[in-house]
What we know:
The protein has 18 helices and seven strands. The strands form two sheets. A five-stranded antiparallel sheet has the order 4-6-7-3-5. The protein has a two-stranded antiparallel ribbon with strand order 1-2. By secondary structure, the chain is mostly helical. The protein has helices spanning 31-44, 49-52, 62-68, 72-75, 78-85, 88-100, 102-112, 116-127, 138-147, 152-167, 191-197, 213-225, 258-263, 298-306, 310-323, 341-353, 367-379, 390-397, and strands at residues 136-137, 177-178, 236-240, 256-257, 267-268, 280-284, 293-296. Helices cover 46% and strands 6% of the residues. Helix 5 (78-85) runs parallel beside helix 15 and helix 10 packs across helix 11. The chain starts with 30 loop residues before the first helix and ends with a helix. Among the domains are: 236-323, no CATH class; 341-397, no CATH class. A hairpin with an 8-residue loop joins strand 6 (280-284) and strand 7 (293-296).
Amino acid sequence: xxxxxxxxxxxxxxxxxxxxxxxxxxxxxxxxxxxxxxxxxxxxxxxxxxxxxxxxxxxxxxxxxxxxxxxxxxxxxxxxxxxxxxxxxxxxxxxxxxxxxxxxxxxxxxxxxxxxxxxxxxxxxxxxxxxxxxxxxxxxxxxxxxxxxxxxxxxxxxxxxxxxxxxxxxxxxxxxxxxxxxxxxxxxxxxxxxxxxxxxxxxxxxxxxxxxxxxxxxxxxxxxxxxxxxxxxxxxxxxxxxxxxxxxxxxxxxxxxxxxxxxxxxxxxxxxxxxxxxxxxxxxxxxxxxxxxxxxxxxxxxxxxxxxxxxxxxxxxxxxxxxxxxxxxxxxxxxxxxxxxxxxxxxxxxxxxxxxxxxxxxxxxxxxxxxxxxxxxxxxxxxxxxxxxxxxxxxxxx
Length: 398
């Protein structure tokens, strides 16, 4: 299989190509007309009438669109995001479950090359160890998002794939539950990821990522393995930056060897030298120059294929470390201020108005916005960390 670079569960990577926040045009078809057209396409794909009957009572869900515009990666600070997901009780439960399922997880490690403690971290964050897989009808959630014009093509394809999964007999439509965004099962796969990387781990002829732990773990590990996961590496580590660090080098766009970073004055967070290893790494700053700093390795980048959120990837890595006795993040930021979608939209407008191209304002922080922030910081003699902060917004307002 080809290595996966971008298949995600939270879809803001598409926002740079969508209408601006608050400026979407309504679809030309009514929902009933649109659904009739979709059914025709599904018939052309070979979907049976029995499966298509599951669309008979589908209606758009306003709640799905509300949640789409308040994703935690956009509106939570790093401190709050990680604090909600890494707790003493979660660490203790993960450690107990690693013991309980050690035989199965070792089988998965040998076959797919993903360490059990990291796989357990994905499991914890995605569904609270299988206890919270989402209460939405996947078909209804995907139909809502596919009808909404902002990312219609992407979610239309996911909906058609979900129908194929039902038609293939893996799950019934009434049991296909998931998140508001259509992510399914205990490790929250989109239908396209399920279809490409799902594994029948228990050998019963079906792929059941809702109820079968062998299917859940083998499928998730298969996805990660094909995303570049390395069994002989950790995800990364917290570090100390030298006082003269060039913040323009932060971000996954820049990769250097551990020796090169060491030569630039970077050390472990306790001040000790970095290990000797043939690893390419990037500096990651989830809260800007004033927050903690990390080196992200290959497994950090593989985690971004699972969900392209910096917060998410760092949380998975640290929680996995905690399961095996690792320490909490040492240099958490103090008094972080959250940025709402409206704040980011205003920030983008102000950057553009001052000659720093952040693209079409959409309320989401992507590559162009970070580049515009860095350009503004460079011109104003501010550390070029690319961090879109409340302080930066206030400076632009002034």
